[in-house]
Amino acid sequence: MALFRDYVVHTPEEIERIRVAMQMTVQVRDQLVELVRPGMSTLQIDTLAGDLIRATGGTSGFLNYHGFPGNICISLNDEVVHGIGSPHRIVQECDIVSVDIGVMYNNAVGDSAITFGFGELPAETKRLLKATQEALMAGIAAAVKGNYIRDISRAVEKRAMADHLGIVREMVGHGVGIRLHEPPDVPNYVTPVRGPKLVPGMVLAIEPMLNLGSNRIKQDSDGWTIRTKDGSLSAHFEHSILITDNKPEILTWPKTM
Questions:
Q1: pLDDT classification of 254: cutoffs 50, 70, 90
Q2: Domain 8-250: which topology?
Q3: Which of 257, 255, 181 is nearest to 25 (CA)?
Q4: N or C terminus of the chain with fewer C-beta within 10 Å?
Q5: Domain locations in the chain?
Q6: Are 91 and 118 in contact (CB under 8 A)?
Q7: pTM for this model (two decimals)
């Protein structure tokens, strides 16, 4: 691993380990989407996630990270990120659920998030989910060698603004691979700083967090859960990618697809 002032370039050996941890993360993420059902508490979901993570042979990349008490982050409806499993938060029909998952294995870590719903979702909810997923893919498409971090940010912002969605500014994407959070930051909006040039060997977690209402957020009294200030729904999609000489490699894409 070559650590520069504002970014990290991983060695080929590290990249192979990172690929394995990322695919473990994919396995847990996709199993959760299949297994989570209305009527489950978020604590049950967190416990299930812990079991699935251990079944891969890995460990949670989130548990005890800066004191975080859960195996994964589980956020419902107006919760943006960092929701903690609770016996009192029950998934209901027509809810949307975001799960953010990190699996550590062999001194590498994966990171991915997805938002999904139950039942016949309202049109506005479907619009939010579609736009957030498309914003993620737009950001990934811009993550090519020779571009800058700001090119990713611009692509995400353009897609979000097309649907007049609130772009959360306080939480951003980041480098990932050996540690859960590595430089650089990857904002979902254009900043005055263009950030580092993208070079092969960089691994980035791109993760738009978009709201149906404003971009303003607040933190719950638990010290972790972030929710929209106006109570509007929020969606969160995240892929981790490898910058290559050609198009980016989506490390958290299922190998079967």
A1: confident
A2: Creatine Amidinohydrolase (3.90.230)
A3: 255
A4: C
A5: 8-250
A6: yes
A7: 0.96
